[in-house]
Amino acid sequence: MKVCICPICGVLHEAVPASSLVGMSDEQVYARSHCRMCETPSDVFIRFKDEPDLGIDELGYPAAVVPWL
User: Fold this and answer.
1) Which residue in 8, 12, 9 sits closest to 47, CA to CA?
2) How far apart, in whole angstroms, are the C-alpha atoms of residue 38 and residue 28?
3) Would you say 4 and 13 are in contact if contact means Cβ atoms under 8 Å apart?
4) Which of 7, 29, 38, 69 has the most neighbouring CB atoms within 10 Å?
5) How many whole angstroms separate alpha carbon 45 and alpha carbon 48?
6) pLDDT in tens, 2-55
7) Is the CB of residue 20 less than 8 Å from the CB of residue 68?
8) How far is residue 41 CA from its own chain's centroid?
9) What is the reported pTM?
10) How many other C-beta atoms can be found within 10 angstroms of the C-beta atom of residue 37?
């Protein structure tokens, strides 16, 4: 799993491929491509190497579309 963090508010996000946006409405696409806490675009998220799943008590949203080069 690829984990990233929003540089503005520090919320962890699980990166998912852009193909997960297929068939979604504009509102759903926006929600998947921006931080849900502060609405920062996901293309500026800081990427981490693969990490284990977030713990049940950790704040995170497993649906951010983050571009991976």
Assistant:
1) 12
2) 16
3) yes
4) 29
5) 10
6) 788 899 998 888 887 888 888 999 998 898 889 988 999 988 998 887 666 666
7) no
8) 9
9) 0.70
10) 14
pLDDT of residue 41: 93
User: What pLDDT score was predicted for residue 69?
Assistant: 45
Other beta carbons within 10 angstroms of residue 48's beta carbon come to 13
Partnered with residue 56 across adjacent β-strands are none
Using alpha carbons, select from 38, 49, 32 the residue that is nearest to residue 6: 38
User: Considering just the CA atoms, what is the radius of gyration of the chain in Å?
Assistant: 11
Q: Give the residue carrying structure tokens 């990233």.
A: 4
* Rounded Cα distance, 56 and 7, in Å: 22
**d(C-alpha 43, C-alpha 64), whole Å:** 10
